[in-house]
Amino acid sequence: MSLQPHLYRAWLNRGLLLDELGRYEEALTSYDQAISLQPHLYQAWVNRGVAAMKSFGYEFYLQQNFTDCFRLERNKTPDILIPTLQNTNRERHLALFQASLHSSIALLKETFADSPKVIAQLEQPPSPKLSQLIQQPPSQTLIDFIQKPLSEDVIAKIAQDSLNHPSLTNPQLNLRGYEGAIASYQTPLDKAIRRDTHPEGWGVLHHHIGIEHYRQGRQSAKPYSFWRKAETSYKTALQTLKPPEFEELHLEVMQDLIRVLLNLGEIEEAQELQRRGADLLQRLLADPKRTTPQKQQLALKSALFNQLTVDLAIQSGDISGALTLAETGKNTCLRWFLGYEQVPELDYRQIQRLLTPTTAAIYWHLSPSALTTFVIVPDALQVVLTQRNAEENAEERRGFIELNDQRSESLQHVLAWEKWLTEWNQRYQAYGSSKETVNGTEKKQHPWRLQMVESFQELRAILNISGIIEHLQNQPIENLILIPHRDLHRFPLHYFFPNYTCTYLPSAYSKLRLILEDEENRDDGGKFPINDTPDNCPPLHSLLLVENPKSRPFIQGKATPLSDLPFAEVEAALIRQRFSQVTLIANPNATRESLCQSLQTPHHVFHFTGHGAYNPGNPAQSCLFLDDTDQLTLTDIIHRDLRDYYLACLCACETAMTGDETITDEYVGLVSAFLKAGVTYVISPLWTVESAASALLIVKFYQHLEAGQLPPMALKLAQRWLKTASCEQLFEWLDQVIPQLVQHKSLQLILQDQRDLLDRMENNDPPYCHPYYWAAFTISGIKD
Question: Within a 10 A sphere around the Cβ of 632, how many other Cβ atoms?
């Protein structure tokens, strides 16, 4: 902008970044500047509406003093930008560039596979000068330019253009919230953006008008007038957003129209649109001109479409078909992230193959309009609908069901879930400081932990757990397979089923895939189970152990040491004594290369003590942090054959957690990756647990495993022990394990300090009874 203040897309991009930073009023002025330069730029009008919806209120000063505010921001630039440029880790930048280049070349080779000339060019190595250029420090010319103040000519140009801001002449554009968003979308229609001259922009603006009407109706006890307006706006958008010119936009509007028709009860029209949309989606995904990443992006964007087809099937009474569609939607997402081949459609009878006479599966499905629970028992399939709760559940429902509300009870449950999820995310984010205190409050006293039990009671009501258990009571069920959907993967659903032994699966196919593959490779036609193992854990002799790497991942461009896990070495020392063959990977050898090599050697158990992270923007880069800046990513895992591993125990921070962003398609994390690679069971925590409690629980788990318990029962018993153990019982247990570390005096001292800490506790309650300490640990997978 200092060079070319008339570049309207630069002002648009500035607005987008300010919006990302939560500076909505400043973003609005940037969008207005872009619009003053290019009134038919529909992207500026759309994003203006989005920012107006999120803004807390009109700020007169920023609008009236736009040029002065911009000059002030520009004057701050040298103090921010120059140190950033000078302190940039250029080796890291080079590594990122090379990785990006490798991915781009692979994609281009796939796209131009039939062009030998292009392939030959792509296989040429990049010029060495390119690496040198990337590693060069910023030139003095660039530094001088950054330090140079804005010229008076540029300031005059910006000031002149700002006189044409649309909000200066249209007071409706100074509204905020729902009214402000609608005003931003409607203002340019049939003026700067007309149907005949700008069909794409005209259609997109009508689409966004529909979205705002739909959202407003969702938040209103009397929603139907808003939803009728949304229906009209969506149908208007479809007048120009037609195939073949605007196929993907057409599909997006169709799925939003289906959603509002479902809420209006227009089932037949919704079904017809669903059939047309499904045909279009399949045609787009089969288009040979589309690259694999393009197909992946389209499939993930269409997750809402798949979710709505489940709701349609439920409303039509096709429960079995709804479950098949729910499973197909899950596997569509898992396929693109985990590299599954084409996934077959599975009906509930095939899913029943995962069950035994004493095992049931609880399968959740979340859409924008309904929260559906399928209960699959060995001889039947049932649906637990939230709006049909038993009479005794009325009291626990009273907090979120309004009798005079015109919205369906199923939608009110979804809204209650979304409100609950938002509040949980806010508290957890505030808690997530690496320091011992958060805003001056000890972590034990932080609202996230103090309100956890109460929060789970609210979630219990929202999920209608009582109704689910009612369906199980007349069955000889002892074990549950829990198959959550979207954000439900982030929470300890086993907490609500204390009388059952629970395991998790990302989807039914994630396990059935291995069974089906094995049957194809057998000569007996698949008449017998693939691994007819007894109900006891098989002998586990060999362990691959990664012990507490000293990790320094890049955070905001800097290699940042992660917090110590003081009990990690204690845990590792006690666990490795239980195995006759141990491969230990410790600092400084805990590198990606050494771990990948070791994983190629069969072991019974892989145990990791350290830190992990979920990447919500790019799940493929979710990882376990290794030595220094090394990582073992989800992509590294899914391409390995780990079928010889019976158990992977990821005692890392938040390896099962899927971030604080709402998941609109499906959960894909490290657990899914290890299961896809063939590991039978995977243990991981949902949130960061204090190091001492984590070590106690995991060591106790291995003791039960050694005694012959299957991993799900071993974890359940370990959790029950930690939850109920008194200080005296913990003293007794510590007195037994401390002598086992006779060769590790420093580790003995750590455990002795923990014993002394427990001894000083005045409260007579079991010290680890709170679910924070024990409920986070989940086990995924089922016995073959």
Answer: 24
